[in-house]
Design brief:
- Helix 7 (238-246) links the parallel strand 8 (223-228) and strand 9.
- The chain has two domains: 5-198 and 385-401, Glycogen Phosphorylase B (Rossmann fold), CATH 3.40.50.2000; 209-381, Glycogen Phosphorylase B (Rossmann fold, 3-Layer(aba) Sandwich).
- Helix 1 (21-33) crosses helix 14, helix 6 (209-216) packs across helix 9 (288-294) and helix 7 (238-246) packs across helix 12 (354-362).
- The N and C termini lie close together (9 Å).
- It contains 14 helices and 13 strands.
- It has helices spanning 21-33, 81-98, 115-121, 144-166, 175-184, 209-216, 238-246, 263-272, 288-294, 318-324, 337-340, 354-362, 367-381, 386-401; strands at residues 5-11, 37-43, 55-59, 104-108, 127-131, 169-172, 192-194, 223-228, 252-257, 277-281, 297-300, 329-331, 347-349.
- The strands form two sheets. The protein has a seven-stranded parallel beta sheet, with helices on both faces. Strands 10-9-8-11-12-13 form a six-stranded parallel beta sheet.
Length: 402
């Protein structure tokens, strides 16, 4: 065995897109893990090449011009089973080419979690499944297309369950997720390690608020609420936007950074009713801390209905990153979030509905109080780091190849 482990971290269901939370998660872990191991990161496709002297980045699948508009989780998009089968052949070929170049494989969870690990296992390479979600269907079956999508979803979940149970080790990013893996995929609890995500404190740290506002053209005196992230089924910004249309608070503003399938609907709602709401679109990842610094309060309005039994089981990056910048956070009192935010101390926990937001905005604490809560938030996450997360990953890998 080499003095340094050769670790391949594969994300077969994700493309490298620098504004994606999954991409940042993977690359941050790779950066820290490279202190002790030779790391190669493999995304399905690489849309935005990243240059690093610490680790190597490769693509699993050959890219064509026609594929450049596909962003993330594309391995199960569409309704063509033949395209899925073709990609599975690509993964088997990838495992054949890579088997002689690594000691252990990490596979980032996706629709077919564990499939790539299984292919490497057949070639004698051990692996670890890194899971952050258990698939959950919550759409009504109202037409043939939806029924076909549900059939694909169900088939994928069967494959993921079988392959997950074959994985020698599964790393769950939250305790709630471990429980779901045991209950829904019947993975043995003894083979599941809980390892939380880290925080990049070199990037996400308290900064001067007025300097940030000056650089971004944001009012010096307004109370700023900020959301950063995807506008998708997991995050419901509708209630807070609607609440802004129902209150008279000209000194309070809502700023939204990010993009997604629901953005157009939110913009239409703002156009017709809500005041004090501003969309910034996508911004470079290294500029996100500037927007957080400009805010007084950050929000993470998750949609409970998007999760099994309403439990937020995945590990959210945005909340600890907000907190590391010294900002209190509003979110919902569900699942893993309750272990991150202490209500009325480092943030606020209430249900993500219009009445709750209206009540909250009408009684919004003064900016000075929010600043004090931000200090408590920063202290609450100061021990989280990608180095500590990578250390735990390394321990798991070393035991696996010993």
């Amino acid at each position: 065995m080499r003095n340094r482990l050769s670790v391949w971290y594969a994300a077969p269901g994700h493309s490298l897109v620098t504004t994606s939370g999954t991409t940042r998660n993977i690359l941050s872990l790779a950066e820290a893990l490279s202190n002790w191991a030779d790391v190669t990161v493999a995304f399905r496709r690489v849309f935005e090449p990243v240059q690093s002297e610490r680790y190597k980045v490769i693509a699993i699948e050959h890219q064509t011009r026609e594929s450049t508009d596909i962003k993330d989780g594309e391995a199960m998009r569409g309704l063509d089973p033949l395209s899925h089968l073709s990609y599975l052949r690509t993964l088997r070929s990838f495992s054949q080419k890579g088997a002689g170049s690594c000691d252990v494989v990490l596979e980032k969870g996706w629709h077919l979690s564990g499939y790539l690990l299984d292919a490497f296992r057949r070639r004698g390479i051990p692996g670890v499944l890194i899971e952050n979600e258990v698939g959950f269907w919550n759409e009504p079956l109202h037409d043939l297309r939806t029924i076909a999508k549900y059939a694909l979803h169900s088939t994928a979940q069967c494959v993921a369950g079988t392959c997950s149970r074959r994985a020698p080790v599964v790393i769950a990013e939250t305790q709630e997720l471990k429980t779901m893996l045991v209950e829904r995929r019947r993975v043995s609890a003894e083979r599941i390690e809980v390892v939380e995500l880290g925080v990049d404190h070199g990037l996400f740290q308290p900064m001067d608020q007025q300097s940030a506002r000056n650089s971004l053209g944001i009012s010096r005196d307004a109370t700023i609420l900020l959301y950063v992230g995807g506008m998708d089924k997991y995050h419901d910004l509708g209630p807070v936007i609607e609440a802004f249309s129902q209150i008279e608070a000209p000194s309070v503003q809502l700023h939204l950074v990010g993009d997604g399938e629901h953005r157009t609907r939110y913009e239409e709602k703002v156009k017709h009713s809500s005041k004090g709401v501003r969309f910034h679109g996508r911004v470079p990842h290294d500029k996100v801390p500037d927007y957080i610094a400009a805010a007084d309060l950050c929000i993470a309005p998750y949609c409970a209905h998007a999760f099994h039994n309403g439990v937020v089981s995945f590990s959210t990056l945005k909340i600890p990153e907000y907190m590391a910048c010294g900002r209190p956070v509003v979110s919902i009192p569900r699942g893993h979030i309750r272990s991150l935010i202490k209500d009325q101390n480092s943030g606020f926990l209430f249900h993500n509905d219009v009445p709750s937001w209206v009540s909250f905005l009408k009684a919004l604490p003064p900016r000075e109080r929010l600043g004090e809560m931000g200090k408590a938030a920063a202290q609450a996450v100061e021990s989280r780091s990608w180095e500590s997360t990578a250390t735990r990953y390394l321990e798991v890998c070393q035991k696996l190849v010993a």
